[in-house]
Write a structure and sequence with these properties.
- The chain is mainly α and 163 residues long.
- It has one domain.
- Helices cover 97% and strands 0% of the residues.
- The protein is built from two helices and no strands.
- The longest helix is centred in the middle third of the chain and has 146 residues, at 2-147.
Length: 163
Amino acid sequence: MIVAAVAIVSQAVILGFLLVTLRRTTERVEDFIADLRQRLAPVLTRTQILLDEAEPKIVDLISDAAHVVYLARGQAQKMDRIFTEAADRLRGQLVHVDRILTGALEAVEDAGSRFRRDLWRPMRKVAALVQGVRVGLELLRSGRARGNGGGDDRVEREEELFI
């Protein structure tokens, strides 16, 4: 029993020692936490104040950014409509110009055909008439020359004219 009593007393002493050590450690931890709270409290307070002050600005900034995006989207859609309309108008004008140029080219071609038909045909006829007059004049000259004795030359000239 003495051994049991000594063991119980030694356990009580060890438990007392552990209790004292635990209390000291607890006090140190509490002091550390209090010191940490003291040091962090102003930082957290300042941070909270900054966040409280910045929150409306951030909300306004986000709202403004959303509005800018909305306006930019609207402007992009307007620009798309404008460019689409301009491209359609340009396409229509090009078709119109093409029709005008095609009509002008057809008119020029028709005028060229008429010019050839109406001017060159009479010119050919006039040229043929002039050629006929020349031949006639040459025949008259040759007739005079024949009267002077050149009958064989006349036949040769006539043959040359018909060839």
